[in-house]
C-alpha cells in the first residue's frame, strides 16, 4: 500500500513539474516564432555576410585586369619636322623634312598568353579563397549555433530544476506544518527554490545573448526564431582518421595552396616570356619641301641583353613557386595534428555523454525517488534529498557540456575536411534523446 501511495505521489509530482515547465516556457517565449535549424543559419549567413561579398568585387577587379592583359601593345602616331627655321639655305621651311609615322612593338615569346594565364590563375585563387572563407564562416556559424543550443538545453534543465525545487518546497512545508520536520528545513527548501529561480533567469538571459550573437552573423537586428532545432545527443560516426585526413588533403584550405601554385607557375612562365626580346617597329612617310618629293621611312629596334636583365625576376618567381609547396606541407602537418586531436576528443566525449545518459542517469533517478520516499517517511534528512537532486541535475549538466565538447570537435573535423559528417554518413549511429531529468 505504501509503495502504491509513493507511486501516485511521484506521478502527481511529475504532472506538476511538467505543467510548471510548460508554463515557464510559454511565458518566456511570448509570440511564437519559427524554429531555426543549423542549415537555415548557414544559408542565411552565406547569403548575407559581408566577408563573402568582398570576393565579388575582387572578381570584378580581376576581370578588368584581364581585359588589360589581353590588349596588344599600343600603336603610336609620330609627326617629326626637321630642318626648320635655320640659317642661310635652311631659313624658314623651304628645306623642311616632315615625317608622319606609326610605331609599335611586336611581342614575342607568348607574352599576351602568359599575362592572361596569370590573371586567370589569380581568379582561380580568388575562388578557392572564397570557398575557404565560406568554410571558416560556416565553422563560426556552427560554433555559435552549438553555444546557443547548449544554453537552450540548460534553460530547459534549469526550468526542471526550478519545478523540482517548487515541488520540494511544497512537500517540506507540509511536513513543517504537521510538525514532522524542523522549521530550518523549510527555510532551506525556500532558499533552494529562490536559487533555482535565479539560475533559470540567468540561463534565459544568456540564451538571448547567445541567440543574438548567432543572428548577427546574417545581419539580423532582432531574434526572429523561437528555438534551435537539433539534439545534442545525436552523434554520427566520423569514420577512420586516415579517411578524414584524406578529405583534409582535398579540402578548400589545401586547394588554396594548389591555386597559389598554379599562380606562381603562371608568374614563372610570364617572366620567361618577358626574357624574350620584343621588336619595335616604325613605318611612315617623309616629305622633302626643297624638292617636293616623298619617301617611305621604316625602322626596327631590338633591345639588348633582355634575357640577362630578366634573370633576377625569374629567380624570384622560381623561389616563390618552390616556397608554396613547403608551406603546403607544413600546413598539412599542422592540420593532421589538429584533426587527430578533434577526432579523439569527439570519440571520447560522445562516448562519455552516452554512457552518462544510459548508465548513470537511470541510477541517479532511482536514487532520487528512493531518497524522496525515505524523506517522506522521516528516514532521511532534507539535505540527503537535496544532495540526491543536485547530483542528478549536475550529471545532466555534465552530459550537456560533454555533448557540446563532442559536437564542437565534430565541427572542427567538418571545417578541416570540408564535408558534413552527418551528411556523409547518412544518419547518426547513436542517438539518445532527453537531457533533462
TrEMBL record:
SUPFAM superfamilies in alphabetical order: Outer membrane efflux proteins (OEP) (SSF56954)
Coiled-coil region list: none
InterPro entries in UniProt: MdtP/NodT-like, OMP_efflux
Molecular function GO labels: efflux transmembrane transporter activity
Domain of life: Bacteria
A Pfam family reported for this protein in Swiss-Prot or TrEMBL: OEP
This protein's name: TolC family protein
